[in-house]
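Dear colleagues,

As part of the handover before I leave the project, I'm documenting each prediction I ran so the next person doesn't have to rerun anything. This entry is a single chain, and its sequence is reproduced below.
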Amino acid sequence: MNIAKVLLLFAAMAATVLAKGDLTLLSPVGGEVFPTLTDGQLKAFSGATRQERFEILKGADKKATSKEWRRQRPLVLEWRSTGGDKYPWRVRLATKPDMGDARDFWIGKDDVQRKKSPDGKESVWKYEVPLANLELGKTYYWQVWSCVKCSTYSCGFTYPEKCACGQSKHGTVSSVASFKTASEPPRWIELEGRVKNVRDLGGWRAADGRKVRTGLVYRGQGLNDNSLVEIGYGRNRLMVEDVAYMTKTLGVKTDLDLRSDREIAGMTQSPLGVGVNFIHHSSLEYGGIFTSPGREAMAANFRVFCDRANYPVYFHCIAGADRTGTLAYVLNGLLGVAKEDLERDWESTFYPEVPGVEDPGFWRSLAPLDKGFANYGAEGERLQRRIELYLLDIGITPDEIATFKSIMLDEDK
């Protein structure tokens, strides 16, 4: 062998990651379906009627399930290693099979659970992905790398085939596994800061078989605290990472604030930054939408969703419950979402501690909505049509309603 071939051989060896062992992905794999709703949510939602859901919640262990609400089921990844591979791990989660859009999670000793075999030659690792916020009905791909980094520490953790100096430290790269998320709404979204009760408005099935599109409208709590005085904004509830996630990953372009003038104390800019369009309409909830100021605010709010340039939209009051819940009820009701699903979505704000769960008086909040919409349309008219007649009555045009539906409903049934 001549000197040139020897040099080429050594160069190839230096640029190759030498496997110390094997990494086998255990779960979720094989394209299995991952339910994004927790067991508690699935059980409660299984009740076909309001009373059935009452009974389910009455028997629920509130302490045991309190962490199962207003969040997705945690995504736990599990893999097996042999040959001594260990942290720091690089876990990659993507929506493309080539991992081209992967989110990287760097995992140290305190971030992962480990169970060793009796002989110590094999370990099973478990990792709960933080703030996974998975989309509904979507295929995801994941992969694990073990301690793959530049041995000179000049290139950092890197792709082994792209290490700038060609001297990657020994490690192992697993194959790529896939799973698909279930399509049952709601899609909960968790943030680092003090903004809770955040979820996608979409995912629900409409009366004609189509689905409400996801990724276009989000509802939740206020992005900053209410003002305690007539001047001075309330304290921001968002972390820096939340602003980046909402504006870049979710792509929010419009912040629709439903709070009163006093609550926002003259705010003119969204806590999400100057790049987000801030719209404020002092709004009312439940039966209040049938009063003169309530009708005016509802018309202004609805027109926000008739302009494609405003999407994606995040709308909220302070708790994301009453004013927010009322607007969500109207929007999804107009799209043809069944009344029982509208109620499920409203209830989920309060689960598992539904006030007066044993007392139907809790439903006095929605009763004025039912009573108000009953004034529109003939006897036996569907709720969707009654809401449409209400919107026409407050000045919304048929073209605006058609535009909203074309934006928010999938084409396929």
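The mean pLDDT is 87. Residues 55 and 316 are 30 Å apart (CA to CA).

All the best with the project,
I.
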